[in-house]
Amino acid sequence: MSVFLLNATSLAKLNAVQLSETELLQLHCDAALITESWFNSNHDDAVLMISGYTLFRRDRVFGKGEVLCVYMQSY
């Protein structure tokens, strides 16, 4: 199993998810563990999806930072 680990300091910024998608697809990773995604309830899963991966999120309720998201390759 190949795992991609990233401290993103915000996937919520413009084009950050798309850049991560490019890296994941080029590296053929089975999973991506991303800390400090800064996602919250205002971020729609449909916008954050990466083709071929299932998204799991743990959003922070207050403030920003210290949150985690995991993209697992869909088989």
Keywords:
alpha+beta; 4 strands; 2 helices; 4-stranded mixed beta sheet; globular; 75 residues
Q: How many distinct beta strands?
A: 4
What structural class is derived from the secondary structure elements? alpha+beta
Q: Report how far the terminal alpha carbons are from each other.
A: 13 Å
Give the H and E element order: EHEHEE
User: What is the overall number of helices?
Assistant: 2
Could you describe the largest sheet, including whether it forms a barrel?
Answer: 4 strands, mixed
Shape: globular
Structural overview:
21% of the residues lie in helices and 29% in strands. The chain has a 4-stranded mixed sheet, with no helix packed on it. The model has no long low-confidence stretch (mean pLDDT 89). It contains 2 helices and 4 strands; from the N terminus they run βαβαββ. With 75 residues, the chain is of the alpha+beta class. It has one domain (3-73). It has helices spanning 16-27, 45-48; strands spanning 3-7, 31-35, 53-58, 68-73.
Topology:
Elements: E1 3-7, H1 16-27, E2 31-35, H2 45-48, E3 53-58, E4 68-73
Parallel strand pairs: 1-2
Antiparallel strand pairs: 2-4, 3-4
Short description, anyone?
The protein is α+β, with helices and mostly antiparallel strands.
